[in-house]
Amino acid sequence: MKNLFAFLKKNREITNEPDLDMTKIPKHIAIIMDGNGRWAKERNLPRALGHKAGVEAIRKIVKECDRLGVEYLTLYAFSTENWNRPVKEIDSLMKLLVDYLKKEFEELNANDVVINSIGNISKLPLICREELKYAYEKTKDNKGLILNLALNYGGRSEIVDAVKEISADLINKKISKDQINEDLFSKYMYTSKMPDPDLIIRPSGELRLSNFLLWQSAYSELWFSDINWPDFHEKELQSAIEDYQKRDRRFGKVK
Ligand code: FPP
């Protein structure tokens, strides 16, 4: 019964979406959540409050992706380079992560969301790792949106890690040199169990990937906006998807 209501609700809302082709929703959306600091500065607020406002945007966008039927949502929450920020800011980001997981867990779980992460989380504070572990365990059999948090993530270090693992498997004769190809390489990436992102979104006016999903973004469609992440609402996500649906994805081939 619960599922029937959810189905009816989803379909009623979807039919209210005149500009989106519901048969062409990107399977995997990845977002570089940028501009929290500038959002705070514009309001004479501390940077930590910019990140806090960024978490509100996460809440909305996760719900909207779920409603639209996006299967994977990857959020760049903390990069390998973000350790170079002031300790106070790093602490506030780690605290926000714990608070988010604690506060949102019940609702995410009830909505069948799977909580996942990419990146080297062994370097995160224990409390973050514990909260993440709990969330992975409890949601691993869910069947809905896969929410993938990029934490202590760097595209280059992901590639280096893959090379190290491939070398170890070569030395241990688990694989042979001839087996190394793009498909095999992909299996050694943190994202081995998910498709490459169809659409990468970066708000805040910056036009770069900043070490995000370097391997996986080879054929991703990129979408940029001047809006800072805390001001990124459902409407912006819909615009990004609408633009994406107009793109001609050829993957290097001729139509
Ligand atoms: C970039 O904005 C944003 C980040 C480095 C952190 C993003 C993290 C969150 C939104 C919250 C924590 C995450 C979770 C999953 C709860 P910036 O600070 O670089 O902005 P600026 O370029 O304007 O200074």
TrEMBL record:
Organism of origin: Clostridium frigoris
Binding site for Mg(2+): 34, 221
EC class (word): transferase
InterPro entries: UPP_synth-like, UPP_synth-like_CS
Keyword Metal-binding: yes
Official protein name in the record: Isoprenyl transferase
Protein family according to the UniProt entry: Belongs to the UPP synthase family.
Role, per record: Catalyzes the condensation of isopentenyl diphosphate (IPP) with allylic pyrophosphates generating different type of terpenoids.
Lineage: superkingdom: Bacteria
Lineage, top ranks: Bacteria, Bacillati, Bacillota, Clostridia, Eubacteriales
EC number of this enzyme: 2.5.1.-
SUBUNIT field: Homodimer.
PANTHER family recorded: DEHYDRODOLICHYL DIPHOSPHATE SYNTHASE 2, DEHYDRODOLICHYL DIPHOSPHATE SYNTHASE FAMILY MEMBER
Binding site for substrate: 35-39, 47, 51, 79-81, 83, 85, 202, 208-210
List of catalytic residues: 34, 82 (proton acceptor)
One Pfam assignment: Prenyltransf
